[in-house]
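Tutorial sheet, problem 5. The two components below are modelled jointly, 594 residues in total.
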Amino acid sequence: MKKCGENGGLLLSARRCNGMKQYETVIGLEVHVELATKTKIFCGCSTKFGARPNTQTCPICTGMPGALPILNKRVVELALAVGLAANCQINRYCKFDRKNYFYPDNPQNYQISQLYLPICHDGWLEIETEAGKKKIGIHEIHMEEDAGKLVHDEWEDCSLVDYNRSGVPLIEIVSEPDMRNAEEVIAYLEKLRHIIQYLGASDCKLQEGSMRADVNLSVREMGSSSFGTRTEMKNLNSFKAIARAIAGERERQIELLEEGRAVIQETRRWDDNKETSRAMRSKEDAKDYRYFPDPDLLPVSISEKWLEEIRAAQPELREARALRYQRAYGLSAYDADVITESRHMAELFEETAALCKSPKKAANWIMGETFRLIKERNVEPEKVFFTPGHLASLILEVEKGSISNQTAKEVFEKVFDEDVEPLAYIQAHGLQTVEDADLLGEVLDKVIAANEKAVEEFRSGKEKVLGFLVGQVMKEMRGKANAGKVGELLREKLRQ
Amino acid sequence: MYVVKIDDKTMESVEILAQLRLSDNEREKAREDMQKMLDYVEKLNELDTKGVEPMSHIFPVNNVFREDIVTNGDSREAMLANAPRQKEYQYLVPKTVE
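Model answer (structure tokens):
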């Protein structure tokens, strides 16, 4: 079926696009985030990613009868940290409930979650898009456990279950239906990701599933104040997939309404390769989860003192940091934004700047060479491991003129890859600029003699040629000369 | 007072949710049991609970926590010993993926 707006060739489509009815998309998100704890939410099993199947399981996270869950305190602390950063109210008394469903990824036949008294509620985040700033409401944040992983086995025509992920702590952040397009959705997700990453509560990787977003979407006629019937879309593992799924689902619902058919409230699975979604069956069949309070877990009571401790320990978040970089270091808004995209990069920058006392140069090295190598080596910014002091001493050496800019870039690759101590490396490889005036003089004479034509041009007033001659000298010196000084010396010699 | 009666439709829905297939005898017995439970709750409803906080738990204890320290090692052989079927150290279950 042709899509509205994509092809005006079809009469039907054209009528829809130019017709009277204008539709508004209404979107709310349910975001699951895996918390960065060492152990699972209710047992002492490791949460380390990528372990061999079922090596991180015990009677509790495989739902053995009689096993008793005990809540991981860190989970509560991280949930509170996220809730406070998202301007939420805290339920000072909260508890856990069982959500009942039968599916092999869930060995207990219920998921421990929070329905009646979730830990946080009624918060908001401010997002910024081209249309300006906007507040997105947060309905609630609750704690729950993740399920195991199912893989289909073609040979047996069965499914294989790995319970390593079963019981990994999650928080689910439920937004209000306040978003109206994909741009707002992505801005909201980015905002959430930055907050959670800066808090150290999760690495929030969509591709690896440590952050998962389900999109609740409905359409309604522009100007209407009531909501249409919504669908829930799952399996969205990139921002691009989310944007495509939103466009696809909007079109699908509008087509249905235009044809006089109803949108059915259902869960749909997005297939990003086919760019279509289809209704999910199985697990979603039973809409009645028969929630009831979990008798194995005791309620959590959050004292003002505990909350105050969490509040006091909140780190400076991205926006505050970017503003500070502009004010204290004179970085442009753009530079401050790029550097604070990753908390780790921001920290590297800040420590380097403090040590070399030149924030602008530190910023240039982070945004230039560091980002270049991150891209070239295909590593994540969070995994960059060089010591800020090493970059700082490199910057200072260039400033002193003891190594050339070019040499510094070469040494930096070693710093980036192996975190070598730059001074020792420069010494060991004889990379410092040659201060030997006689040697430099010899090379200058040699270059002047070998480039008669260029020398003539320079003498007749072509200033630009000097750069070429400096380049020739630097080449002869294998970069171990101070280019500025070479330029001065050349100028002097050629005037004679 | 309105008294909830468990009809056939409720029984059917509960059976689906609980994934149970009951014989006619079993269904009748289950219905009686469940009706008794509901009647008991109806009895409790006669009490005036105005001003009484809903009880979240029968024990007056809060905040039982563990520290975030790994205490469990690899015990997958023992864990998988409970699996009716297994393959390559994973639980083999009826096909679920669509």
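Marking note: The CA atoms of residues 53 and 60 of chain B lie 13 Å apart. Full credit if you identified this.
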